[in-house]
Amino acid sequence: MNIRPNRVKQKLAAGQVATIIAGTNEPDLIDQLGTLDVDGIWLEGEHGAVDYADLGNLTRACDLWGKTSVVRVMDNDYATIYRTLDRGAQAICVPHVNTRAEAEAVVAAAKFSPIGKRGMYTSRQGFGVDDYLKTANDQSLLIVLIEDIAAVRKLDEIVKVDQIDIFFVAPSDLATSMGHIGDPGHPDVQQTIDGAIKKIVESGRVAGTLVNLGNVERYTRMGVRATMSSFFPWIQAGAKELIERAAAGARG
């Protein structure tokens, strides 16, 4: 048996845009979302309910549909990161990475020797894969969140860290760190986001950010190649239209 390929990693290697959707921590809903032609499913372990006991079924559902399981962990902790991978995650997203040393710590925890210091254990992804310990590094995908103004100020150094696949600029926490809580659309915040994305792209690394239907083309034109979006706004928009049409029909 060969190790399962990482779809997001494949798209990025081909220079294409990788799409990741968020909003579910339920295997049955992943089965429904599996019919969509997206590349990854975001599983929320920082703000959401995802825990280690859940990860087997969640990542298994992603595998079933050929989607990359992207788990945002709660902290930049050695055991947190490698245990999440051991439970079957194909991608790790680490919050509040503000220095080069913190980015290097992500690599150390997530990659097996000789690249990193990940604990030697065969993940569920490795069952039946004879060369798992030699090939796992090629398929694990690492994302660091640039979500503090401190990280933006250190970005020149952070982007030099090898093995980080995506440098993801997160607007809401960045706005808060700049004194604009709840206002990621503030001009200063938007200018900072644009500047960070530009720096990542110009350094030859992969930039990612949160997108919606109103801004996704703008960001991909800027060079963003990893996009994340919640599917709930699509449901809200569709429900609103349905209700309005139903009311209009009742009025004759």
Q: Kindly state the mean pLDDT as a whole number?
A: 96
Across the major sheet, the strand order is 1-2-3-4-5-6-7-8
Provide the CATH topology: TIM Barrel
- Tally of individual domains: 1
Question: What fraction of residues sit in β-strands?
Answer: 15-25%
| H and E order | HEHEHEHEHHEHHEHHEHEH
- Total E-strand runs: 8
Classified in CATH, the superfamily is Phosphoenolpyruvate-binding domains
Give the N-terminus to C-terminus distance in angstroms: 61 Å
CATH level 1 name: Alpha Beta
Q: Mind describing the biggest β-sheet?
A: 8 strands, parallel, barrel
Cα-atom Rg, whole angstroms?
A: 19 Å
Give a structural overview.
- The protein is of the alpha/beta class and 252 residues long.
- It has one domain: TIM Barrel.
- 45% of the residues lie in helices and 15% in strands.
- The chain is built from 12 helices and 8 strands.
- The chain has helices at residues 7-13, 27-33, 52-64, 78-86, 100-110, 132-139, 149-153, 155-158, 171-177, 187-202, 216-222, 232-250, and strands at 18-22, 40-44, 68-72, 91-94, 141-146, 166-169, 207-210, 226-230.
- It has an 8-stranded parallel beta barrel, surrounded by 7 helices.
- Strand 3, helix 4 (78-86) and strand 4 form a beta-alpha-beta unit.
- Helix 2 packs parallel to helix 3 (52-64) and helix 4 (78-86) packs parallel to helix 5.
- The longest helix has 19 residues, at 232-250.
- It starts with 6 loop residues before the first helix and ends with a helix.
- The mean pLDDT is 96.
